[in-house]
Design brief:
The chain has 166 residues and is an alpha+beta fold. 28% of the residues lie in helices and 28% in strands. The protein is built from 6 helices and 7 strands; from the N terminus they run αββββααβαβαβα. It has a 7-stranded antiparallel sheet. A hairpin with an 8-residue loop joins β3 and β4. 23% of the residues are buried.
């Protein structure tokens, strides 16, 4: 798939010492900055993605890039083929990334402007599922009620989507 090839190109570019550390974390090198929305609050997040298999990416999500920043979310991104193959009941848990890209709420700060524009066109065609692990202020998880879908939509966009049946 074209988008996976672009992600692989981004993965070979060193982001920071994480890429040189070895172990499972060393492959989470594609840095994406995006606005998330959860529990009435929008917030900037820093994702570090790696490919899991053809058409599937997994990302670790943080509120900041500072050393010692805590993991707050895990996100999966899939291509349209994988999304279309999902049972209908599962599709409700995934959100398209196109609205966030179109609204300028997704960036790839480690890429040159031309590379970023090309990669954003790929990201635009993906669907994501984000699971919040620690609330918004470093709170401990509180079970299923605290593990929520975080979307890239604003509150108003989310309400419109829910009312329209998504």
């Amino acid at each position: 798939m074209k988008w996976l090839g672009l992600v692989v190109v981004a993965l070979v570019m060193p982001v920071d010492a994480l890429a040189q550390a070895g172990g499972p974390l060393s492959q989470y090198t594609t840095h994406v900055v995006a606005t998330h929305y959860l529990r009435g609050e929008s917030y900037e997040t820093h994702h570090y993605f790696k490919p899991l298999r053809e058409g599937v990416l997994q990302g670790l999500v943080f509120r900041e890039t500072a050393e010692g920043a805590g993991l707050i979310e895990v996100e999966w991104a899939i291509g349209s083929g994988e999304y279309e193959a999902l049972p209908d009941w599962q599709k409700a848990y995934w959100h398209p990334l196109a609205p966030a890209v179109d609204a300028g709420r997704v960036r790839l700060p480690d890429l040159a402007p031309a590379e970023e524009r090309e990669m954003l066109q790929t990201v635009r065609g993906l669907y994501a599922q984000t699971i919040n692990l620690a609330g918004l202020d470093g709170a401990l998880p509180i079970g299923l009620e605290g593990i929520a879908l975080a979307t890239h939509l604003t509150h108003a966009e989310l309400i419109r989507a829910l009312r329209s049946g998504m």
